[in-house]
Amino acid sequence: MESTRFVVLADDLTSAAEAAGHLADAGRPASVRLDVGESGDAWPCVDLDSRWLPEAEAAARHERATKQLRAPGIYKTMDSSLRGNWAAELAAVLRASGRSVAVVAPACPAYDRVTVNGHQLADGVPVHIGPAGRDPVRPVTDSSVLKPLARQGMQVIQLAPDERAIVAALADSSGPRALVVDASSAADLDRIAAAIRGHLSEVVLCGSPGLWEALHPIRGSRGELPAARKALVLVGSLHPTTREQLAKLESSGVPVLTTLDADRVARQFDTATTVAVATPEIPSAERHLHRLAILGVRCADAVPDLGFVLSGGDTARELAVALGATGIRAAGTVAPGIMLGTLTGPRRHPVITKAGGFGGPDMLITAASALTRSTT
């Protein structure tokens, strides 16, 4: 299974980074690409930046990428809380690839995201009841994994994580269809991976980091991870999990600011190893992301040997673009789904990326400490 080369199509940067980071852990050279046309590894993990686009535009972007990037294996990432245009994007990838079967398994048990009877739960409750249902841009209104696929005109089949049942469904030649597979544990995902082992070049896989990690078990050791002398934590995500992590980071003694005054932030590094800057906790905070990225660039100019911890896919992409990067060379992960790598382009800063909803209360502390090789 590991010998099958994949292309990863993601709707935001952290989703692409989750895949690339695990590939690096598994000994595969991988990078996050910010553009389909950029040169890169044999295992491209492409951020198509489509999560908040209109559905038709997001689907068209995935269709073009599928036609341009050819690989035996196709992995379409999806948000484990069902945010974004994932169903329309998956339907477009199926059409463009000429394949007729998608295997959909969005569970990520490491972060308590599970699929039960075709519904997605986060922290034990349906995703539309939790933070995803209160998203200020596009709230999730239903926890069903099946309904969005059916709206795309696909035949949808719900399956338990039973290897024989999955193999039988794959052998059925009744036409285009999506197999939605429940999973509540890593063992369930391992069974799904085993069932699709002989079909990777025939199907499109769609899932979160959980299925991707089951497909690529880690064997052996990775190289040394990059490090920085100072760490700037930029938080653009409004997710309650990230805000809890930010409060824990501040309680550990790290300065946490909401200013966009780069000079003031840079001065904090005179006495601190790690400094954090966050957007306000208001829905309009998304409009501050570009200014947050410009602050990051100015701090990089002023603070030698600076690395970044970036919470939220939009935050990470804005900073990478502002620094002139074409992508991120993955070095590995510091926790499941939390990638550490180096920007590719003129300014090769070490960066850690994390989705807003991932990680326990200490995750920002862990990430900053991993980046600076210190106790924050």
Q: Which topology of the largest domain does CATH recognise? A: Rossmann fold
Strand segment tally? 18
Proportion of helical residues: 25-40%
Largest sheet: 15 strands, mixed
- CATH architecture assignment of the largest domain: 3-Layer(aba) Sandwich
| Spatial strand sequence of the major β-sheet | 9-10-5-11-4-1-3-2-16-17-18-15-12-14-13
Distance between the termini: 40 Å
Beta-strand content estimate: 15-25%
- Unreliable residue runs: none
Q: How many structural units, i.e. domains?
A: 2
Q: Give the H and E element order.
A: EHEEHEHEEEEHEHEHEHEHEHEHEHEEEH
Radius of gyration: 20 Å
The CATH superfamily title of the largest domain = Putative sugar-binding, N-terminal domain
CATH class of the largest domain: Alpha Beta
- How does the helix and strand content classify structurally? alpha/beta
Shape: globular
Mean pLDDT: 92
Supply the number of helical segments: 12
Family: Belongs to the four-carbon acid sugar kinase family.
Domain Four-carbon acid sugar kinase nucleotide binding: 307-364
GO molecular function, one term: ATP binding
Domain Four-carbon acid sugar kinase N-terminal: 7-215
